[in-house]
Design brief:
Length: about 325
């Protein structure tokens, strides 16, 4: 009777196309452009040069690198779904599938036209932003995307002496936003734009949850609690008020299912996207500028791995920073 029950359940999952979803839960996104496969102790990250690096989670060593694509979106089996970086912003979305079992060899590349007023670009600009992520449902990868545009203008020189000395503010235009979803078959790589009524509920754009709500908190632990990227751990942070101390925040990390404390590390941030891999806590940090005895240190965007037993950083790797950090019109 029990065997029959599980057989019926398995057939139901297969008919609903959920088996690939369940296996995909093992793979998660640490942050935009950083896909983690903990079972194979690998991370696939955007490198600063515009390609993708495969990084070993235990030692941070580079396993392979490719310039066949620019931004990893999700992993299904050995197939890494990635966004290609257009040389100039354009309305064509190009998706590349790499074989991680063959050191990032390109398997399939396909593209689809988005609305003409959309500019696909991995890097933000002063006025535009294009974001995309991936959800797996059945035999396809669904990629919800969003494009935002905002006109930014400088303030014209003021010649009226009666207004001299008054504070001038830049007028804020309301951002224009457009979005949609692209569907790509896992096996064939066929790409299309599905109708909204045909989208599974699981592919809706879900914002990253950071601070846990009251009903989701671990009991008996005061203060804000932050969820790990894979949902398996909870971070509690306490920060000292002494600005002379760089790593002034203490991260205590707990297993979410058992409530057991698994370790702690010191950090200059109150929280960051993180996950636990064995004795390591791996998290994203930067970019930032730090004043030291040797002068100013300019740290780029990185992922870092710290041993919770010793508190020592074991490895770090620079990743591509896509945020706009250029000048603003005056």
């Amino acid at each position: 009777m029990i065997r029959r029950y599980f057989t019926v359940l398995l057939m139901l999952l297969l008919s609903m196309g959920l088996t690939s979803q369940l296996s995909a839960l093992k793979v998660f996104e640490l942050s935009s452009g950083v896909i983690v496969d903990p079972d194979n102790r690998m991370a696939y990250v955007m490198n600063a040069g515009g390609g993708i690096d495969a990084v070993d989670l235990k030692g941070g060593t580079l396993v392979w690198s490719t310039d066949q694509a620019a931004k990893p979106l999700t992993l299904v089996g050995n197939r890494l779904f990635c966004l290609s970086d257009p040389l100039t912003p354009e309305s064509e979305l190009k998706v590349v599938i790499l074989d991680v079992g063959k050191r990032g060899q390109r398997v399939i590349a396909n593209s689809v036209k988005l609305p003409q007023n959309v500019q696909v670009s991995i890097n933000e600009t002063l006025e535009t932003s294009f974001t995309i992520n991936a959800r797996i449902s059945g035999g396809a990868v669904f990629m919800p995307w969003k494009y935002s545009y905002q006109s930014v203008k400088g303030i014209e020189p003021q010649t009226d002496k009666s207004l001299q000395g008054q504070a001038l503010s830049m007028p804020k235009a309301k951002p224009q936003t457009i979005g949609g979803t692209v569907r790509m078959e896992i096996s064939s790589g066929a790409i299309s734009i599905p109708k909204e009524k045909d989208l599974p509920a699981a592919v809706a754009h879900i914002s990253r949850q950071l601070t846990l709500a009251e009903s989701q908190r671990l009991p008996g632990i005061p203060g804000p609690q932050f969820l790990s990227a894979d949902g398996r751990h909870v971070l509690k942070s306490e920060c000292a008020s002494d600005s002379r101390v760089w790593d002034k925040c203490r991260w205590e990390i707990y297993n979410r299912s058992t409530g057991k404390r698994v370790g702690e590390v010191r950090n200059h941030q109150s929280n960051a996207p993180f996950f636990v891999h064995g004795a390591l806590v791996i998290y994203q940090t930067g970019p930032y500028v730090r004043r030291t005895q040797k002068g100013l240190v300019d740290e780029p965007l990185k992922i870092r791995a710290v041993d919770m037993n010793t508190g020592k950083e074991l490895w770090s790797r620079t990743i591509r920073d896509t945020a706009y950090r250029g000048p603003f019109p005056g």
